Amino acid sequence: MEDTHEFVEKIHDKQEKDERNRKRGKGTPSDRLPTKQHGTKS
Fold this sequence. Notes:
This protein has 1 helix and no strands. By secondary structure, it is an all-alpha fold. The termini are far apart.
């Protein structure tokens, strides 16, 4: 039974990630995840 529970957890986690990825690039820039500056901060 534990294996089934773990499987469902993995599926839910994947669905959340897919949903976040789908929403990326839409909306205002402040809604997006910050990108790395690669050491260009002053």
